[in-house]
Write a structure and sequence with these properties.
Blueprint: H1 3-9, H2 13-18, H3 23-31, E1 35-39, E2 42-45, H4 46-50, H5 54-67, E3 74-75, H6 77-83, E4 96-99, E5 113-116, E6 125-128, E7 131-134, H7 136-146, H8 149-164, E8 165-166, E9 171-172, H9 174-186, H10 195-204, H11 212-223, E10 230-236, E11 242-249, E12 254-259, H12 262-265, H13 267-270, H14 276-294, E13 297-302, H15 308-317
Parallel strand pairs: 4-5, 12-13
Antiparallel strand pairs: 1-2, 3-4, 6-7, 8-9, 10-11, 11-12
Helix pairs in contact: 5-6, 6-7, 7-8, 7-9, 7-10, 8-9, 8-10, 8-11
Length: 324
Amino acid sequence: MTPDEGYAALRDRAQLATLGVRARALDRLIADGSAVRVATGRYVTSEFWSRLFAEDRHLLAVLAATERSRTDAAAVLTSAAVLHQLPLWRHTPTHVHLAAPTFNGQLRDSPDVAHHRWRVKDADTVRISGILCTSLARTVADLLRYLDPVAGLAAADAALRSVAWNPRTRTYNASLAEEFRLIIASKIRPGSRGAKTARWVLDLADGRSESPGESASRMLLIQLGFAPPQLQVPVAGPDGRPYFVDFGLDEVDAWGEYDGTSKYLDPQIRGGALTLEEAILNEKTREDWIRGTTHRKFGRWGTEHLTLPLLERRLRTFQILPRR
């Protein structure tokens, strides 16, 4: 969801009143679950809210908070991340994060906003849909320091993907990605909280990872003892056009594939005219071809396997084990 789409969904009491929803009726709608209070004075329908991911819900909270915030406050951390459309892998923010040099540093002086006493350089800020926030590079640097390595890698991968990956041609501008990586690294102050882990995760970041699930998979594979895998590896198909495999685990002579449910259930992702059955058959044909021509083991897993013990157990079923 974009900020503009979020603004279109939010309603205040005055707007609801023009639609015939008075104060008592609104309270009843909230009580019976038909409406959701996003922040003080800002509402959406529960039907709309139920379709949203955690990132989209937080974006709505950011939009509502910045409408009533001081003009010199900048959205930071996860609140800047959702403005930049970055994923927050399995992290659900509890507060909107705003920063200004004049704030008192209290994190909970309002029920839904954390006020940070930070001085963010003008060079590290941008405006998105009119909202002041940290730049993409500064936002990623902050997330790498504050989030766990899996979530941090998902955000860094997405940022590199946005600047260096061409989805139409499936090409990756490695030099452009490296330039941006160096900019992010320059925002991580040596010796600051989480700086060492942040730099390690940043070194692993790669914009060829096509989804947060693939990013999480890669970090877990590394934590399990596998070498950093090759990404989006081309394998020549029967008609000469390449199939692309998510992970090349070269040191154990195996392939790995992360299957998000949208790959099969979302009509746009699976190819528009294809039925679910056709998409599954095509995927089986593709896997059989790759197995038969490369003579490698082929392991698959889904979002439900993305914890260390569950992914390790899943890989064992395919006899794919790290060389330790």
